[in-house]
Write a structure and sequence with these properties.
The complex is a heterodimer of chains A (116) and B (112).
Chain A lengths: L4 E3 L2 E4 L5 E6 L6 E7 L6 E7 L2 E5 L6 E5 L5 E5 L8 E8 L11 E2 L3 E5 L1
Parallel strand pairs in A: 2-11
Antiparallel strand pairs in A: 1-3, 3-8, 4-5, 4-9, 5-6, 7-8, 9-10, 9-11
Chain B lengths: L3 E4 L2 E5 L4 E7 L5 E7 L5 E6 L3 E5 L2 E6 L4 E6 L8 E10 L5 E5 L3 E6 L1
Parallel strand pairs in B: 2-11
Antiparallel strand pairs in B: 1-3, 3-8, 4-5, 4-9, 6-7, 7-8, 9-10, 9-11
Classes of the chains: A mainly beta (116), B mainly beta (112).
Chain lengths: 116, 112
């Protein structure tokens, strides 16, 4: 069974640039969520994708957008980068349906983004 | 939104000691998970525990959903237990949508 993978591991960008982060879900999982973890904080929910559509969103501006592909891999895009976007970005996958879900969200190793 | 509070924020233990980490949440939840984050940032799921008690080796967890708290017990701590422990609660928001809300974590340092 393949776990959740993310790329790249580290990334350095400058303010105003755009960035794309990538995630491959765990085999068999069809739901992916993205989280932002600032230094010293817990992860914060950005959004979730299910069946290639956004299925829930946290308190993040529209310059944070995403895609989910038919193979359940996903991208997180951030436009007009700001210094406060520097964080660890985590991807998590899980299996739907949820009514009697007994599995967990499985997290990838994260991408550490630094905005200068 | 739902609030998740963890205590203590920091904990220093001598190797071999026991500890209890607490997680309080402000509203009813569908599920609760405990994670360990290693120094490289990887979140490792420890327990998926919406209610009741579970044990895995030296770790155990108890969730009392009606009183909105969960406890993580670490016995005979080892230096490899060091890291940040997060509690995260999950709520369904309809149409299959759900999200984890994390606490700020408990930073555990186990010294030899």
């Amino acid at each position: 069974e393949t776990g959740v993978t993310q790329s790249p591991t580290h990334l350095i960008k400058t303010r105003g640039q755009q960035v794309t982060l990538r995630c491959s879900s765990q085999s068999g999982h069809n739901t992916v969520s993205w989280y932002q973890q600032a230094l010293g904080q817990g992860p914060q929910f950005i959004f979730q994708y299910y069946r290639e559509e956004e299925n829930g969103r946290g308190n993040f501006p529209p310059r944070f957008s995403g895609l989910q592909f038919p193979n359940y891999s996903s991208e997180l895009n951030v436009n007009a980068l700001e210094l406060d976007d520097s964080a660890l970005y985590l991807c998590a996958s899980s299996l739907v349906p949820l009514a009697e879900r007994t599995d967990t969200q499985c997290f990838g190793p994260g991408t550490r983004l630094t905005v200068l | 939104g739902i609030q998740v509070e963890q205590s203590p924020p920091d904990l220093i233990l001598q190797e071999g000691a026991n500890s209890t980490l607490r997680c309080n949440f402000s509203d009813s939840v569908n599920n609760l998970q405990w994670f360990h984050q290693n120094p490289w940032g990887q979140l490792i799921n420890l327990f998926y525990i919406p209610s009741g008690t579970k044990q895995n080796g030296r770790l155990s967890a108890t969730t009392v959903a009606t009183e909105r708290y969960s406890l993580l017990y670490i016995s005979s701590s080892q230096t490899t237990d060091s890291g940040v422990y997060f509690c995260a609660v999950e709520r369904y928001s309809g149409a299959g949508s759900y999200q984890l809300t994390f606490g700020k974590g408990t930073k555990l340092s186990v010294i030899p």
